[in-house]
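Sanity check. The docking grid for copper (II) ion depends on where the pocket ends up, so I'm generating a full predicted complex first rather than guessing from homology. Inputs follow.
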Amino acid sequence: MNRLQQTMALLAATLAFGAAGAAAAAGSLAVEQAWIRAAPPGVPMLAGYADLRNDGDAPLRISAVESAAFDSVSLHETTVVEGVSRMRELPGLAIDAGATVRLAPGGKHLMLMEPRQPVDARAPVKLRFVLEDGRRVEADFVVTDQAPADGGGHDQAGHDHHAH
Ligand SMILES: [Cu+2]
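Predicted complex below; grid placement will be based on this.
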């Protein structure tokens, strides 16, 4: 091999490595501390919370959330405008590589409409996060009246913007 061939071989190897690296880069969603706030039977609207962590090496985007247990599930965000708490629907949720987005009372949350079955502490509820690339990540949400203890201290007892 002459010097030019050596250079070309090295360049080819570098390009191949780069392409392989790019192809392997992907977001990876981990769902933790997942819970649904317990509510009296017959309540048409519940709220779900979780820590959504991207364990991958590329950004990911959640484009929808599904569950057989509800007529509809959407991503919401609570904001306080001039002292008044309001909710708006989010079109999706982007999470950077290595980042965690916390769904928590008073902020982003899952809006769970019209339960198709009793939602109570007897059984966790399965929710499925649909990623923009078509992958789906399923998670069990426990039904409880406060955030699972994780030392994060993010539960704000008594803050219930869904009460009407
Ligand atoms: Cu909401």
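Relevant for the grid: The first strand starts at residue 29 and ends at 37.
Also worth noting: Residues 151-164 have pLDDT under 50 and may be disordered.
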